[in-house]
UniProtKB/TrEMBL annotation, chains A, B:
An example Gene Ontology molecular-function term: peptidase activity
Protein name as catalogued: Peptidase M20
Protein's GO biological process: proteolysis
Domain Peptidase M20 dimerisation: 209-368
Database matches in Pfam families: M20_dimer, Peptidase_M20
Keyword Hydrolase among UniProt keywords: yes
Keywords annotated in UniProt: Hydrolase, Metal-binding, Protease
């Protein structure tokens, strides 16, 4: 639109040029960072998580952030904290949240490009973490530089704090402790949470909530060793069969989760949000392609696909294993069987309640002769949704509309993150700012990010830091 | 009892001394053989299967067998054939069946002794294959030598043929072809089948039947790649959940298998056999200990444990796997899920009927949006039971009673072997001769064999070859 006299009421914002001029440098830095395999859930990669934190800290210092620290305070994986006070003592204080740990890469044989040798193909940058979440954290660094360059300021118009943790993909198991230990450092008026996608490039959205998650591994144990099924088959309980019956009982025929009380306190989204969801273009083929090339939709009866993923809770099997899984036949009754389960939660649900309900459910579905154990994987992540009428939500939406040149609607995301913990601990609203795409293959082979979206995101952030003080002070958006 | 004048009506048979004198030499040879990891189902060990066959052929030649051949006629793993004609042209022709391939050793970390460095501890020889089946095949070699030495003969009283195959643990997938290709070589009046256990050392038995088995792997596939459960969880079918529901539907609440028609033609054992089963000492604790230290009994309602394992058919999960099974969490919806199933079959059932019923069952339990595939693992093994009134069964029982000094009752075994194929192809009865024990840990870590039982078994075989011609001719057992 820039330079078009018919759009003179929307002149090109100075933040755009300030972003574009730094694009090559931005990309080169991001590629260096993506080459570090910071898989936080894998102890073998904990050294890489530390290297990744050090890389980010150095990049922030090079950008002029006056106060940069690596919080390496085990058992938490290293986090990076940075602080850039505004010269205006009344400026709102904004805490940006992101993470620099990445998902494991298996099945690594399904990647068509190496996960940790970032490759630029056209507009796409491929590599583990390109979208989730290093690319979007790097976008913030660029956004701050563009904000300062575009406004000629030497300090940002808002006091900025950055908190980039190192174990989000493991469910942020120590974030509550970190927030408690660093309350003064992290004190703020607003959290900007960057780890969510747009609905699509064509129909961009601002996220207003994330599902929570509770994950646990259930282990059913019979004997101490696998036993020849000709020897004992038919005379002792088979843990794999019992596990299958337990998993089968998790849902009814309508796809509703059968943990007692699971739906008791679920809060539905507002009518405004549901109307936006219904108005978004939905292409079943694209959805399936982006869902690992699935063959068909399914889910809880009575809800649309977007509602099933954004505002309805679920129970999913993430993995299971028992007995002999190698080549050929081995006719054994397995000694044990294990399933990794995760429950996605929506506002009104709490991980601790689900954990308790699961314990009862497992006890009720463990037959005589087997022992059940639940290996909990942390406390889980509560769900979160922001009030869509909050002025910061409007400021984010307007900044994105300007940078993307398109209307921006409301969406949510079916993924999970520590937004609720940040909200509850810091006592402030959390708004979402993210430009990932649903087909970025996060948590899957061939993760990528669309580079022009990162650049538009940086531009929008630069605008956001300029406009946010007025919006939070009650000002209307510019006409 | 030997030398006791009160037992002069049971003088020590000459076969006992002829066996004992060769015990050390026997053990040394067996240990060499057990050191060869002839895992027939693992292509990485096919060279070892060939080495194992060569070892056996050489041992037979050294013992004086006049005609020894290795049948290495892919795709079948190498088998060993040997022939020692009796000088008596009217002597019955007996084919001894066994196998020299062994089970895989995983979970190898649960072995307390190395599986392929045979270790003698007191009366027990530990090593993969010690009991199943190399130890018992070696027992036959010793038995023939003892028979000749005890009788002063230069050829056995029966014409002996030996057929030791190399892929029994894989379900003998090519045995029908081998039997067809070598019909003249294998022509005989009786098969002596050696791959079964006694009920116990204290209550020895002669086996009269084995269950059959049909094994298959069922694969349910959704998409092409695992997908982030936050991204798509709740909106697409989860193959692991569907697989669990399929497995859960395999049995009803009474433990009865739900494949259509599964029980239609089942033949029950005779009253004589059921009375023997009921009279055998049964110690639940021992049974559980020998069943991988299981925690409790279970199975089809209305049948005893021995009946459940010996004369009732089953469906068992041998292994299953889906999604992420590594350390920590990975919240994915798996692309596929797979289960290895095996069905133990009893007389009246046929593997091909079960295969057909399974196909229908899987189709009926595959939800929309998933694709089902059944990876069949060969044609399966039919069940077999011998007529307990056959004179050869009596001859085996009497020979064992003499060697073991105890009454010998009837039992069966829940395992499977190619007895039915031998019976159907060669058109002759198959009798069982085995001295393994249920607690030999076959198909499990720390497999072992009780050496004195192998020696008593060799003695009984030496007696059997001497007495069998008369028994088959209609003679009564000696008073």
């Amino acid at each position: 639109m820039s330079g078009d006299p018919e759009n003179s009421e929307h002149p090109e914002p100075p933040e755009r040029a300030a972003t574009t001029v730094r694009a090559d440098e931005f990309l080169a830095g991001l590629r260096d960072w993506l080459a570090i395999p910071s898989i936080g859930v894998d102890p073998a990669h904990h050294g890489d998580v530390a290297r990744s934190a050090a890389w980010l800290a150095e990049a922030l210092r090079a950008d002029g952030w006056p106060d940069v620290r690596v919080w390496d305070e085990g058992p938490a994986q290293p986090a990076v904290y940075a602080h850039w006070p505004s010269a205006d003592p009344d400026a709102p204080v904004v805490l940006v949240y992101g993470h620099h740990d990445v998902q494991p890469v298996d099945p690594v044989e399904r990647w068509t490009r190496p996960p940790f040798a970032p490759t630029l193909v056209g507009e796409e940058l491929f590599g583990r973490g390109a979208s989730d979440d290093k690319g979007q954290v790097a976008m913030h660094l660029l956004g701050v530089r563009a904000h300062l360059a575009a406004t000629g300021r030497t300090t940002p118009a808002v006091t900025l704090k950055l908190f980039v943790e190192g174990e989000e993909e493991g469910g942020s198991p120590h974030i509550a402790r970190t927030l408690a230990d660093h309350g003064a450092d992290l004190d703020c008026d607003l959290v900007v949470f960057t780890d969510t996608p747009l609905y699509s490039r064509e129909a961009p959205t601002v996220c207003t909530g994330q599902r929570g998650v509770y994950g646990a591994e259930v282990v059913l144990t019979g004997g101490v060793t696998d036993v020849h099924s000709g020897r004992a088959g038919g005379s002792i309980p088979n843990p794999a069969t019992a596990l299958a019956r337990l998993v089968a009982a998790l849902h009814d025929e309508d796809g509703r989760v059968q943990l007692p009380g699971f739906y008791d306190h679920v809060v539905l989204p507002t009518d405004v949000e549901r109307a936006d969801y219904a108005s978004l273009p939905f292409d079943e083929e694209v959805w399936l392609t982006n869902s690992g090339r699935a063959r068909g939709l399914s889910g809880e009866t009575g809800w649309s696909t977007l509602e099933r993923v954004w505002v309805r809770p679920t129970a999913e099997v993430n993995g299971l294993v028992a007995g002999y899984t190698g080549p050929g036949l081995k006719t054994v009754v397995p000694a044990d069987a294990r399933v990794k389960l995760s429950f996605r939660l929506v506002p009104g649900q709490r991980p601790e309640h689900v954990a308790e309900a699961l314990r009862g459910f497992v006890d009720a579905h463990t037959p005589e002769g087997l022992r059940a154990e639940i290996v909990s994987r942390g406390d889980g992540v509560p769900p979160y949704a922001v009030d869509v009428a909050h002025p910061a939500v409007g400021a984010v939406r307007d900044a994105l509309e300007g940078a993307l040149g398109k209307p921006v609607r409301f969406s949510r995301t079916g993924g999970s993150g520590p937004a609720a913990v940040l909200h509850e601990t810091l006592g402030v609203p959390v708004v979402y700012f993210g430009v990932a795409l649903p087909d970025d293959n996060i948590h899957a082979p061939d993760e990528r990010v669309v580079v022009p979206l990162l650049l538009s995101g940086a531009e929008a952030l630069a605008v956001l830091w300029r406009t946010l003080p007025g919006r939070l002070a009650g000002g209307e958006p510019p006409a």
